[in-house]
Amino acid sequence: MKEALEVLDHVRLNFSPAGLLALNITIAFIMFGVALDIKLQHFKELVMRPKSVIIGVISQFVLLPAVTFLFIIVLNPTPTVALGMILIASCPGGNISNFMSAMAKGNLALSVSLTAIATLAATFMTPINFALWGDLFIRFYNNAGAGDYLVPIKIDFLQMVQTVVILLGIPVVAGLMFAQYLPRITFRIKKPIRQLSIVIFIGFVVALLSANFDNFKRFIHLVFIIVLIHNALALLTGFSISSLFRLPRIDKRTITIETGIQNSGLALVLMFNPKIFPPELELGGMTIIAAWWGVWHILSGLGISSFMAKFKLTK
């Protein structure tokens, strides 16, 4: 397996900043639609009972990186693949998790709150986790050569605040106000917006696959099972800890999704930043893991959300 994965280091993906911008604009639109189902009372309940928020943050930033490290020990992949998996696990939950929680009939206020908290916390938690677990990986396998890839990661706090405000704050507030003052129109547009959101996500999956179709066709067999198991472990981690602490089923759904839907877009942005990872480093293993995560977690998220939605909520 390790020898086969070494070929990934020489892969170069087509990464479009314009495509990422289009995705962010789409997420803002989707968040507006998600917020149409949220009421201010939902946020007040979280403040009064913060247990689910605390468990959700622990699941994302403590348990998922640890579970990822254990999986890497068993898998023993190449350094770039291993560090790519660690970087993915160190990132906050993806913004599409809010859309998935809405589909799953989870706790939308909890989902939005966790995404906002995790995104801001990522400014220090992502670098800490990448450095901590990456160093443990290198020490465990005595792989000194991998140290070149374990670079200090810097994430701009103000940029993260801007991301939260633009992608979450403004759309959510707009959706809340729209639902509050225009209830009749809200009732009419909620379903069409949800259906349009699904179509848009499918479109992005197709576009991403098309832009890198040759690479995916040649190397997908090397990373498909790795990402599938890694993503399944992430979902199981969120479900397990929320079950252990006997959270309401509606919160279990959200924490499961929030832990399993990672911000692979942020991981790719970090990987393609020459100020973080020098251009001379061959990061093919890292980038293709993150890129396939970006595709797969949409597919798995849609699947698990649709599955959850079939079951009625109980305490």
Content-based structural category: mainly alpha
| Number of strand elements | 0
Helix proportion: over 70%
- One letter per element, helices H and strands E, the order comes to HHHHHHHHHHHHH
Our count of helices gives 13
**Domain count:** 1
Name of the top-level CATH class: Mainly Alpha
What is the CA-atom radius of gyration, in angstroms?
19 Å
Report the CATH architecture.
Up-down Bundle
Q: What do we call the CATH topology? A: Na+/H+ antiporter like fold
Percent of sequence in beta strands:
under 5%
Q: Could you tell me the mean pLDDT?
A: 77
Task: Explain this structure.
The protein has one domain (2-309): Na+/H+ antiporter like fold (Up-down Bundle). The protein has 13 helices and no strands. The chain has helices spanning 2-5, 17-35, 40-48, 51-75, 79-90, 96-103, 108-141, 157-181, 183-211, 213-244, 249-260, 264-271, 284-309. The model has no long low-confidence stretch (mean pLDDT 77).
Itemize the secondary structure elements and their pairings.
Layout: H1 2-5, H2 17-35, H3 40-48, H4 51-75, H5 79-90, H6 96-103, H7 108-141, H8 157-181, H9 183-211, H10 213-244, H11 249-260, H12 264-271, H13 284-309
Helix pairs in contact: 2-6, 2-8, 2-9, 4-5, 4-7, 4-10, 4-11, 5-7, 5-13, 6-7, 6-11, 6-13, 7-8, 7-11, 8-9, 9-13, 10-11, 10-13, 12-13
